[in-house]
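Today's session is about reading a structure prediction critically. Students often jump straight to the picture, but the first step is always the sequence itself: look for stretches that repeat, for charged clusters, for runs of hydrophobic residues. Only then move on to the predicted structure, which in these notes is written as discrete structure tokens rather than atom positions. Here is the chain we will use throughout the hour.
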Amino acid sequence: MALLKSPRFVLLERWLGLLVFLMAAIGAAHAQDALKKNTALAGRSTMDQTHSFRGMVFGSSLEEVEKTIKLDSISEEHAKGDPLKIYIRSEEKKSLGDVAIQEVAYYFFEGKFYAVVIATMDYRQTENLRKALDIVYGGSPHREKESQNLVWNGKNTTAFMRSDRVTGEARTMISSNELQKNYERFSRESAVKAASEL
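Below is the predicted structure for this chain, in token form.
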């Protein structure tokens, strides 16, 4: 007991206490810096903030986009007169970071870039894309009751993910909120017109 009360032990105890405090403060500062860095990296180019995908701004005309990006139509022949046209990029990058993707299709509605559909090929790629969308939209998605789609709502864009429970393949559509309203109006009008001919 006398050893614990000795001035040397009390001094050592104070130094150890100070050392532990400093290490905790440094650790907290490092963790806060890492969090700021990750948030800055995740937030600096999120598609919802920039309202774009791979340099294509949602709402841009097809003519504007084709000035810098070569697109090939995949819907022209069977969709004459349809205001929704689908394109693929001639030289598409088949990944988003480390997420491997099968294909990317670009949707133009009434001549404006409206949405992008990203296809993933298995559970791992689909799960990694889901996590990336959590980062972009700042949280987990909600699940639609009827379709069981995962939905992320953003200020400028909304993402919908539908996956196959057996294969893990998924289709993720990211659309412009502004143009979605016009598309939904057109879709309702088309359904009414088709119903009148049944």
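Discussion point for the tutorial: The chain has two domains: 2-43, 47-196.
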